[in-house]
Amino acid sequence: MTRQHPGEHMAAEISEQPAVLAGLVERRAGIADVAEKISQKPPRFALLAARGSSDHAALYAKYLIEVLLGLPAGLVSPSTATLYGARPDLRDVLFVTVSQSGGSPDLIEVTEAARRQGALTVSVTNTPDSPLRAAAELGVDIGAGVEKAVAATKTYSATLLALYLFIDAVRGGKGEDAERIGELAQRTLDGSAEGVQRAVDRYRFVDRVLTTGRGYSYATALEGSLKLAETSYLAARAYSGADLLHGPVAAVDGETAVLAATSAGRGGEAMREVLEAVGERGADVLAVGSAAADMPAALGIPVAPSAEELAPVLEVLPIQRIALGLSLARGGDPDSPRGLLKVTKTR
């Protein structure tokens, strides 16, 4: 029996992402069919339900819906339905449930409840034969293939892209900005390798990390924090760049590492003031993104430029590799973090 090396699955699945993303773009016609059914009866607003990494993808979708569709959007609390039995009027509401496994009981239950309350329900999942897909009226298949590592990598980036293609199609788009996303992902992985290694060497002994971003990239900050916590057991916290300046910046000092998602666009430019502020307090700043080279940071890791709306699909790739590298450098195995399972079932 072949012995598995620590991080083997996570490393392989990170490397698969360019092909996974390119394949998803090729299958976007199926996503457009789902979007067409929604366009036939435009919703009043949208709600999204998710947990874990999928919750960060749902936050990204919230930004897309509000900016690209001009609709109010919110993240629901599944426990209001599963624990408290709330049954709000959801007529003419688009209810999107995001779950890589499609197996969490609370997400299934809240989707069933939303459908009974009149919502048009859509599942976005990597498991098309899952109970969640059966609970929802419509379904978007992520199509990332089996993911063996506990830490989500290819399923996360594919979920982001699936949500983008879905929401873009609802507004009548053809996904043109995503046409070359597989190529851009490969360029990002290749072009960031040296910076990733420098970051691993620089931060392998750090104990406290803040991750931050604004706009679409706030989702990247949240996902980056989760990856560092679950693979390297770091005390990692994520903040919107705006929220960071509203109080938490007081806890920043020379012992703090700050990982910032800074891709070109309005969100990335808004991070300049934030990074100047934490830098003045002595923080060691790592900027990741297509605008990283222009940011006040001790270390910058480049990401291939793209439309701002798609930046989170790319900027998370080197962050995943940093999490992988730090875990291995600290003697861990990111494929099997202690106390975690691939599918977490909550209610």
UniProtKB/TrEMBL annotation:
Its EC number is 2.6.1.16. SUPFAM superfamilies: SIS domain. This is Glucosamine--fructose-6-phosphate aminotransferase (Isomerizing). GO terms for biological process: carbohydrate derivative metabolic process. It is an enzyme of class 2 (transferase). Keywords: Aminotransferase, Repeat, Transferase. It holds the Pfam family SIS. CDD domains: SIS_GlmS_GlmD_1, SIS_GlmS_GlmD_2. Residues 34-176, 199-337 form the SIS domain. One of its GO terms (molecular function) is carbohydrate derivative binding. The keyword Repeat applies. InterPro entries: GlmS/AgaS_SIS, GlmS/FrlB_SIS, SIS_dom, SIS_dom_sf. It comes from the Bacteria. PROSITE patterns: SIS.
